[in-house]
Write a structure and sequence with these properties.
The protein has 9 helices and 12 strands. It has about 280 residues and is an alpha/beta fold. It has an 8-stranded mixed β-sheet with strand order 5-4-3-2-1-10-11-12, sandwiched between helices. It has a 4-stranded antiparallel β-sheet with strand order 6-7-9-8, covered by helices on one side. It is globular.
Length: about 280
């Protein structure tokens, strides 16, 4: 069953998803809510610097967060950027919010307002220096990610998909040469260090808290590792619910999800419905 943008709590389409939702509702104090940012909490926009959380997202999160073990925003963005674009800092009720930025390489905790992070990978600076010449005349443009990754966007190119396809091989070659990998997304190719993905970040967070259940919501290819992490947790006995923030651009997550909702508005409605159900 597909969720809609109402306050009713939708029913997952799969038995394992229904088990995950039941476990979350039965023991919310042991539940981790994991959420992607772009495309899940925030609508996709042509300029990622203009991305902001859905207008009702913070209120929904503030209503839900005190009732669960943790709400974790798991994003490829720098943690501070996600906090700023999300409007998460200093909000009553969000004391249990954590932002795992750069796929978990950075961590921001609402309780302290501080970011912790290791030193950046040197390959990121090297590929950033080489990109202008490689991208010249393509219409693609570069998004800086705090020195820890760099993204190449093709959404504003004359032919976004053709440009994306043409750049994938040369960018992969450049990344490999400097010890990085390429993560494809919705008309974006991100060059970043290996070993950083949303699955590792989510799994570490869930295990650190000894969580009894997990919900993860995402919209893009970069969320597939987090989906796989939830599958691994379920196989090991921790119930989980996989939610797809549906779009017309990416269909892979729909096939893997237990529940599909209508974009960020649907995610916010789900969070609000969970908060209401938990009283």
């Amino acid at each position: 069953m597909t969720g809609d943008a109402t306050d009713s709590l939708p029913t997952p389409a799969t038995p394992v998803g229904r088990d995950g939702l039941h476990a979350l509702l039965a023991a919310p104090h042991r539940a981790v809510i994991g959420l992607d940012f772009d495309g899940t909490l925030a609508p996709i926009v042509a300029d990622p610097e203009q991305a902001r959380a859905h207008p009702d997202a913070v209120a929904a999160l503030a209503a839900l967060a005190p009732k669960v073990a943790s709400v974790a925003v798991v994003t490829g963005r720098p943690a501070e950027i996600a906090v700023r674009y999300g409007g998460f800092a200093g909000v009553p009720g969000l004391e249990h919010l954590t932002v795992l930025g750069h796929y978990g390489a950075e961590r921001w905790d609402a309780a302290t307002g501080e970011v912790t992070a290791p030193e950046p990978h040197p390959g990121v600076a090297a590929v950033r220096a080489a990109l202008p010449a490689l991208l010249d005349g393509t219409g693609a443009w570069i998004e800086e990610k705090g020195g820890r990754a760099v993204a190449v966007h093709t959404r504003r190119a004359p032919d976004p998909q053709a440009t994306f396809d043409a750049l994938r091989a040369p960018l992969t070659g450049l990344a490999t040469h400097h010890g990085l990998i390429v993560e494809p997304g919705r008309l974006v190719l991100e060059l970043r260090p290996p070993g950083m993905d949303k699955g590792v970040a989510l799994l570490t967070h869930v295990r650190d808290l000894s969580a009894g259940s997990v919900l993860y919501a995402g919209d893009d290819l970069g969320d597939l590792p987090a989906f796989s992490a939830v599958d691994d947790l379920r196989s090991a006995g921790t119930p989980g619910l996989l939610v797809c923030s549906g779009s017309d651009e990416v269909t892979e997550l729909r096939k893997r999800a237990d529940l599909v909702v209508d974009g960020p508005g649907g995610v916010v409605a789900l969070l609000r419905a969970l908060a209401n159900r938990l009283g």
